[in-house]
């Protein structure tokens, strides 16, 4: 009896990896969109995961968008 070819298994694994990549990209975009549109969400992220918020600020500064961090800190200090 001849062994089964690995092509169907490789195809299924490839599809699984592609689906995981797409899910990761969509999740990252959703997180960026939420942080980009909601200062309250950024404040929550600052309390829960400050490193993720730091990546958001750095990516915006790298893209040439400045002042978000300063405005957030100013507005958050007024609320306290």
Question: Topology, pairings included?
Answer:
Elements (H helix, E strand, L loop, with lengths): L6 H31 L1 H10 L1 H13 L5 H12 L1
Helix pairs in contact: 1-2, 2-3
Order of helices and strands: HHHH
Largest sheet: none
- The share of residues in extended strands comes to under 5%
The global form is elongated
Radius of gyration: 21 Å
Total number of beta strands: 0
Q: Provide a count of the helices.
A: 4
Helix content estimate = over 70%
The averaged pLDDT comes out at 92
Kindly report how far apart the N and C termini lie: 75 Å
Structural class: mainly alpha
Q: Would you identify the regions where 5 or more consecutive residues have pLDDT less than 50?
A: none
Describe the fold and architecture.
By secondary structure, this protein is mainly alpha-helical. It has a domain at 38-79. It has helices at 7-37, 39-48, 50-62, 68-79. Helix 1 packs across helix 2 (39-48) and helix 2 crosses helix 3. The relative contact order is 0.07.
């Amino acid at each position: 009896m001849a062994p089964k070819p690995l092509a169907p298994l490789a195809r299924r694994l490839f599809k699984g990896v592609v689906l995981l990549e797409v899910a990761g990209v969509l999740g990252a975009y959703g997180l960026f969109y939420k942080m980009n549109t909601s200062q309250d969400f950024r404040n929550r992220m600052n309390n829960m995961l400050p490193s993720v918020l730091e990546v958001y600020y750095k990516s915006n500064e790298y893209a040439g968008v400045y002042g978000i961090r300063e405005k957030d800190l100013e507005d958050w200090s007024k609320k306290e």
